[in-house]
Amino acid sequence: MAEHTKIIAVTRFDPERDDAPRSQEYEVPVQEDWKVLEALNYIKDHLDPTLSHRWSCRMAVCGSCGMNVNGEPKLTCREPLSNYGERVEVAPLANFPVVRDLVVELEGFLEKLGALKPWIMLAKQRAPEEGATRQSPAELADFKQFSMCINCMLCYAACPVVANEPDFLGPAALATAHRYNLDSRDEGAAQRAEIMRGEGGVFSCSYANECAEVCPKNVDPAGAIQQAKLANVLSWARSFVVRRRAAS
Amino acid sequence: MRGLLLRLEPLIWGLFGGGMFVGALLLPAWCLVAGVLLPLGLLPAAEFPILWEHLYYQLSQPLGRAVAWSAVALPLWAGAHQARHLVTDFGGLRWDGLVGGLCYAAAALGSLLAAFAVLAL
After folding, report:
1. Are residues A72 and A114 in the same domain?
2. How far is A126 from chain B (nearest CA, A)?
3. Residues of A in contact with B88 (CB under 8 A)
4. Residues A88 and A26 in one domain
5. Domain harbouring A163, CATH code
6. In this complex, do B92 and A165 lie within 8 Å of one another by their Cβ atoms?
7. Does residue A162 share a domain with residue A53?
């Protein structure tokens, strides 16, 4: 296969040694069909074993290899190097603390996601003898798109609200919470409502739509958040009617 | 103030959503047809008859007044909400309570004046 070289400029940062991130250039012999991740793996294996980057499945399923490529959040395992010129800049995802080089800290996201209880909640536990909970294809279609999230964090790196408001729960977490609210098997929407409409919840989103633009799985987190806003408005209005009826 | 805004977010967003629907979709279409295309003869008046007298009559009815009020007041809330978010985009949340309070107070005042205006129709 034809081979030529490209300059891969990688952002390096070791918090124990460096005061600030710096760019380091590597001349990499690349093949035509290489993805950005393959160039990084080449650097790690052949040029500089001290480079730190995160990856796993190499087929856009695990969501580990999200990085900023020429300033845009991309899944590096599916981003062709041929999309770029002779010099390609690779940096860690924006809006996250950097652990080292291209590896970012995801603890904050995992805390936000956990707070939204992203699992099926039932008002009353079902016994095994009651059998499986059935769901029609139409009910599945209500939320399937929002269930395709792989937590790659590209949406957080692209979101201007995440950049401005550290407490914003963010596109992936809110879309996942909405996915469970839409699931016909779930009865936990009321338990998620307070956090979803509270500080950093759905109403912090200003619908820049950048999350939907960069999402590699076409989840459309912005659409999910708009739907969640409307659902919150309706349930908020309904709570007044119910309260008034209960009082009378 | 920020705590109050947080509690009222569903109401504020509902008004904002209504304002975007009216101000970004309905009003521009109405202004384009009734204010530009018909007067300039770019649309055949016979196929788009606007019965102005009928319209004036409807505006004196309760539903017509509500529609006229919505056409003025809801876009004010949409504008206020966007102005608040614009400030947040540039300056973070530090002044959000104050800015949001001022923006929505202006929208509320405008809505009140619009109510007086449509009642006088």
Report:
1. no
2. 34
3. 164-165, 206
4. yes
5. 1.10.1060.10
6. yes
7. no
